[in-house]
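Quick start: read one record
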Amino acid sequence: SYLVLGFLLIMLPAQALADDAVKWYSHEEGQVLGKIQNKKMFIHFWADWCRYCKKMDKETFGNAAVIAYLNANFIPIKVNTERERQTAAQYNIRPLPDNWFVASSGERISNQPGFIEPEMFIKILEYIHTDSYLDTSFMKFMQSRR
């Protein structure tokens, strides 16, 4: 059966394998990639003891639509606030989880603290990715999507 599994892994397109999880980067790697690829960054601040971080990991970052959208349109960065205190301090992280959106230039766009349901998270990702935040309130953006 290992042979069959190995064969299936070889035959599956790389994209199918790539999209079964969010491709997380370190803060440093992500900053560089954001500039090089001219992509906005999504930074997720978390800690091992944080119950809602675990819930978001499982439910939101485990959602196929979230995985696909985040991997395609953002540079996803994960920062453990216990291990990377300096980075957490730069963003003045207090409640966890905390979710930040940063332009490819490094300029901070916005943040959304707390657990975010997958459906709402995708809407927030679209709002930021499409640059709608530049001239439309999130409320108006949501109304236009109905």
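The radius of gyration is 17 Å.
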